[in-house]
Design brief:
By secondary structure, the protein is an alpha/beta fold. The chain is built from 14 helices and 19 strands. The structure holds 2-acetamido-2-deoxy-beta-D-glucopyranose (2 copies). The site of one 2-acetamido-2-deoxy-beta-D-glucopyranose has 5 residues, from loops. Keywords: Hydrolase, Protease, Serine protease, Signal.
């Protein structure tokens, strides 16, 4: 302690304004927000990061070539699970000891391999402070709660005999033009991380992979796919629903229930969904099969901006060849309102209306990492899609949650045409051929006007999959 204080005094002398707060050796490992929660309630659900991390593995595998997607996800899975076992076994064994459980009294705990973390429920301050003393642990943070990007409006059409027409968003991004050349998403699997999906809905049932590895529910490990909220069913309908509802009507889907029935999800369960995507498992998390890795994932959820908590998961998806598409958020038109993970290394999607403007709610950049987001925009206002209550009813919702699925469908179409396209190539194809004939609102963020493209309001513009696809030929 004497030496530490000595250092602080030197810093004080150098910088004058340096503030010494709780100069305890444990502080740097325990996240500030977590410390505040502990002060308030004395315990928290936590994520414990191991010092070894995953960075070197991700860097090494990202630069390697593999003969197939399966080989790549398998290599990633093998390396990350071996790393997690190696760096976590001491802590996990310790947590399993009855005497330790008795003296610290905590809830369930999970080993997370994709991020090399241990999640612990109801961890007391004493437990957290003891963990912080362990050499192999680098950081302890609070398990946060994310929300589905709440639809701004939502109503049921109650329509059982909807006319089979192409929905306006599907038409607006020129999907029918792509279908006309026989590209409809065949061969591509999309994943949904949301409130679940009603698998029997008439526009979705034929596209459900529906094998033993196409559904995971980290909350209840339920056996059968379901959706008691409606958000997930609606979004998947826009990605690939039949009868003109979806962008890629021949793509297949799998789903992970990262958000509970109320629409909120814990970081831990969202990360468990992230693991499921790399090598899908059975309903109870067993028998991972790396030949079933999906190609693209729809994330219509998020939370406060400026966080890095999903970075390791997102980077693992990139290495596995899973394209992450994320809603920008519904906190616009205020500048710097794009939520996490929409402000990270993903295709971040803003929302447009059928009147060719930005949807008023659509979140706006720049991010606190000084990047321009959203990357692109897509239709998100007044979108009709599958309803979760019956197999043949529909509902209308508005939000960037509805915009991201249009982009997921567009990615599926591109990959269906050319499965070798990379994340960078796909993002480039979507951005370079986006439509910019959108009415500006006269807003500025970070000295960039919304009538100059790219901008912080609409990114590179509203995607036009017809033009992106034509550029591929
Ligand atoms: C999925 O497969 C199961 C078992 O074969 C079947 O009973 C069920 O109806 C299928 N679900 C859908 C949505 O097709
Ligand atoms: C998972 O489910 C399978 C199939 O029902 C069962 O055989 C197996 O014992 C379960 N495993 C665990 C760890 O619950």
């Amino acid at each position: 302690m004497g030496i530490r204080l000595g250092n602080i005094f030197i810093l004080l002398a150098l910088f004058g304004t340096f503030i010494v707060s709780g100069s305890c050796a444990l502080e740097p490992k325990i996240d500030k927000r977590l410390s505040k929660t502990l002060e308030r309630v004395g315990y928290a659900n936590i994520l414990v990061s191991m010092k070894d991390g995953t960075r070197d593995i991700l860097n090494e595998l990202a630069g390697k070539s593999f003969s197939s997607r399966t080989e790549r996800s398998q290599a990633l899975y093998n390396a990350l699970t071996a790393r997690a076992t190696h760096s976590q076994s001491h802590t996990l064994n310790w947590l399993e000891e009855p005497a330790i459980l008795k003296s610290f009294n905590y809830g369930k705990f999970y080993s997370l391999w994709i991020t090399n973390q241990i999640a612990i429920e109801f961890a007391s301050r004493e437990l957290i402070e003891t963990l912080a003393l362990m050499n192999e642990i680098s950081r302890i943070q609070e398990d946060e709660i994310e929300e589905l990007v709440h639809p701004v409006d939502s109503h049921s059409t109650n329509a059982e005999s909807i006319q089979v027409v192409n929905q306006w968003g599907v038409t607006e991004i020129r999907a029918p033009q792509v279908w006309a050349s026989d590209t409809r998403g065949a061969g591509i699997t999309i994943a949904s991380i949301d409130t679940g999906v009603r698998p029997t809905h008439v526009i979705l049932s034929a596209n459900y992979v529906n094998d033993t590895h196409s559904w995971y529910d980290p909350y209840d490990e339920s056996e059968v796919a379901h959706d008691r909220n409606g958000h997930g069913t609606h979004t998947v309908g826009t990605v690939l629903g039949r009868n003109g509802f979806g962008v890629a009507p021949e793509a297949k889907w799998i789903a992970c229930k990262g958000l509970s029935d109320t629409g909120s999800g814990t970081t831990t369960n969202l990360i468990r969904c992230g693991q499921f995507l790399v090598c899908p498992t059975t309903f109870n998390g067993t028998d991972p099969d790396c030949s079933k890795t999906p190609h693209v994932v729809c994330n219509s959820w998020g939370g406060a901006s400026g966080r890095t908590v999903y970075d390791e998961m997102i980077e693992a998806w990139h290495v596995a060849g899973i394209i992450p598409v994320v809603s920008a958020g519904n906190s616009g038109p205020r500048c710097s309102s794009v939520g996490t993970p929409g402000d990270r290394d993903v295709i971040s999607v803003g929302s447009t209306t059928s009147d060719n403007t930005r949807s008023s709610f659509s979140s706006v950049g720049p991010t606190s990492f000084n990047t321009m987001k959203p990357d692109v925009s897509a239709p998100g206002s007044t979108i009709m899609s599958a309803d979760h209550r019956f197999d043949n009813t529909y509902s209308i919702k508005s939000g960037t949650s509805m915009a991201a699925p249009h982009v997921v469908g567009a990615v599926a179409l591109l990959l269906s045409k050319n499965p070798d396209l990379t994340y960078v190539q796909i993002k480039h194809l979507l951005q370079s051929y986006a439509d910019r004939d959108l009415d500006p609102e006269g807003y500025n963020c970070d000295f960039i006007s919304d009538n100059a493209f790219p901008n912080h309001h609409l990114g590179y513009g509203r995607i036009n999959i017809g033009r992106s696809m034509a550029a591929l030929n």
